[in-house]
Specification:
293 residues; binds arginine
Length: 293
């Protein structure tokens, strides 16, 4: 296996906004000119892929499947850590068809040695992958969103599957329906988050665990631009087109921003983080280095 970061993305050829399972989804806007919208989506996806490659990453691609437009959001496919993939179970029938496709995708990745183990949630537990279970490499724990999409019962399953601490955060609104829309741990221990997305109890948990100097709060405008839904590697952050206010905040703290115009995917309620899934994340990367020496 190479030591370059490895991400999964999906070929956007069958992307479409034809149903509405979150308040951002705009089938009407898509329908106004579907050919143009799809062409713009293909360009945006290619631009995001290039931005990841610019970070030094490799990208594996899931083939497009007709009738499964939201397959373009592989953050929802599974939770992956230390070579183990815990496959998602989708809340909405519109996305449940993705489960069989994703099982095949991960079976193929396993055959190639890119993951070594595939595990499942028990029946009746919903969990929408890394979109609702974000690994915090500095604190060595999962932050797990629940409420709109993922069940609270998923937290204990994640903890058992990976042998890691899981901190649950209840999401307060349908607008910020996955944790990755409002919460982004950054390398070095900082946290970009949107406070209004959380219940009072979840906010209290965040503020207890993350000291104020490490918290970077997104404004309404910044969250609505889907900029919290970002991919971070070291000091670099890839995100949708960002308001100047956010760029100033992050550059002042030493981060470099790469912006990608992801407007066609924001019409479905997703952006940079959702369109990717990191496959090679290790809970203890320092041990992997020692083992390789
Ligand atoms: N239309 C998709 C849905 O509602 C968007 C998913 C975005 N993914 C994410 N991880 N936030 O499920």
């Amino acid at each position: 296996m190479s030591d370059r970061p490895l991400y999964l993305m999906t070929d956007p050829a069958c992307f479409d906004v034809c149903y509405q399972i979150n308040p951002w989804m705009r089938p009407d806007a898509w329908r106004a000119d579907p050919r143009r919208a799809l062409a713009a989506a293909k360009d945006a996806s290619a631009e995001l892929r290039r931005a990841l490659q610019d970070l030094g990453a490799e990208v594996e691609t899931i083939g497009a499947v007709q009738g499964l437009p939201d397959l373009v959001f592989p953050a929802n496919a599974a939770i992956v850590l230390d070579g183990r993939a815990l496959l998602a179970r989708f809340r909405h029938p519109e996305r449940q068809g993705e489960e069989a496709v994703l099982r095949e995708v991960f079976t193929r990745l396993k055959r190639r040695g890119l993951v070594h183990d595939i595990v499942d949630f028990p029946d009746g537990v919903f969990q929408e992958g890394a979109g609702d279970a974000i690994w915090d490499a500095d604190r060595k724990l999962f932050w797990a969103g629940h409420g709109p999409r993922s069940s609270r019962a998923a937290l204990a399953v994640i903890a058992r599957a990976f042998g890691q601490e899981v901190v649950g955060l209840e999401l307060a609104s349908e607008r910020y329906y996955h944790l990755d829309t409002c919460f982004c741990p950054l390398a070095g221990g900082k946290l970009l988050y949107y406070p209004a997305a959380f219940t009072p109890a979840a906010l209290a948990t965040i503020r207890l665990r993350v000291p104020e100097v490490q918290r970077i709060e997104a404004t309404d405008e910044e969250a609505q631009a889907f900029c919290v839904n970002a991919v971070n590697q070291g000091s670099r952050i890839v995100m949708a087109r960002a308001p100047d206010s956010l760029k100033r905040k992050l550059t002042a703290r030493g981060y470099t921003i790469a912006e990608v115009d992801l407007a066609p995917f924001i019409l479905s309620g997703g952006a940079a983080y959702c369109m990717t899934l990191r496959l090679d994340r290790q809970s203890h990367p320092e041990r992997a280095i020692i083992a390789a020496e």
